Amino acid sequence: MAKARGKAPRPRPSRGLAASRRLLGVGGLGVAAAAYVGVDYLRYLSPTWHERLMPALWAALALAAAARAPFYRRWDAELRAAPRFVAAMALMLAAFLCEAISVRFVSAVMGLQWHRSAAPLPDTGQWLLLALNEKLPQSVVDLLRAHIITLHHYLMLFIMLGFSVLFDCIKAPGLGIATRYMFTMAIGRLLRTITFIATILPSARPWCAAARYQIPGHPHPWAQKYYIPYASDSDAIHRVIRDDVAYAAVQSYPGEYRPDWGRMSFLVDILRPTPGEGPSWYHLLKKASGGCNDLMYSGHMLVAVLTAMAWTEAYGGWISVAIWLLVLHSAQREIRERHHYTVDCVVAIYVGILLWRMTRFIWSARDASRARRLVKLDEVQNRLIHAAKDSDIDEIRGLLKEVELAGQEKQGVSQRAILAFAAATIIFTLTCVVLALTLTSDG
């Protein structure tokens, strides 16, 4: 009778909410992700149906998230994760700025004539794909060439994964996995910048720079002094190695254009602006795009691998296998279309995997609260046994309460603050989704 009186009934969610949780919890999230990629591919097969189905799919997903948000029980955990999320976002924006400056530098330092004349590096991966085109059935080759998934798809897949925390598909907080994703992305971008700026490699597309940039045709004075005189003369290279001194004089070329950028004028020598590229350094950087040199390693593949790693750890199942197959498809298409050399895609895959493994301290699918409860249970085990022998029900309840509290994090904030934060988070995230759709739709 005491047990019957002490056991409080659990509140049951409404049928609609329970159905939505069951739908997404038992593979529904994977179905939603596959539907998004499939429906978006209709833009190539049937543009009319794409225009009809894509807005309907996004409306259904947005309504499902909005309906579930008021019943989400872990907004307090999201609020605690918010400061680290903001810090990771700031780090990622700083990494992108550093990368954009470096992309412009490696694209402009050698001048336009070098881009036109530099031969692409021999790439055995490209040779292999061309050979397979001759051996495989045409239907398979067409599948390998198809633009099934691009950069914005991987970004949207991760946003869908983050939103699934509302339906208890992944472990809370959702901002925790978002923080890990952005922090890992920032570190990966910084490592990428250090890598491609260390040695300038020719593009697999020699016409790219002329089509994309307004850069001077001649090399920068730095390249004129330290590279150009020794690039093709074996005796000059031997002398540089022997004396370890750059002895050649700077050649006679037109002077460098030097606009007045105020405090940012130190970037003039790095970015090499031209009169037709706008009045400010920021306006020039917006045209940096993906660069025209080979940028070791692939940034597109880094995004794809981090998305696949996040899905594999947080959700798993058949959809994670499908995403990894799409990652491999994206890699071969990057090589096939000569956006990157094979080495760029290979390095991006293992760097992305290793970086994601190293940042587990930020967020992990493992239940840390369960581990804390087990530790507390070990501490009170002897007291619990003695209380059971003495039939002390109150002592047993008190000890079990201590174990349960050990697995919970302190809230420390008011309910009103949590509700305000929830509303702001939903609005901010939906805004990011709209911006990602409009600004990255071309990959």
TrEMBL record:
Which membrane topology term applies here?
Multi-pass membrane protein
Query: Where does the protein end up?
Result: Membrane
Q: Which residues form the Sphingomyelin synthase-like domain?
A: 291-358
Please cite one Gene Ontology biological process associated with this protein. Answer: ceramide biosynthetic process
**Which keywords label this protein?**
Lipid metabolism, Membrane, Sphingolipid metabolism, Transferase, Transmembrane, Transmembrane helix
Q: Which PANTHER family match?
A: SPHINGOMYELIN SYNTHASE-RELATED PROTEIN 1, SPHINGOMYELIN SYNTHETASE
Q: What is this protein called?
A: Sphingomyelin synthase-like domain-containing protein
Q: Which organism is it from?
A: Oryza meyeriana var. granulata
Q: Lineage of the source organism?
A: Eukaryota, Viridiplantae, Streptophyta, Embryophyta, Tracheophyta
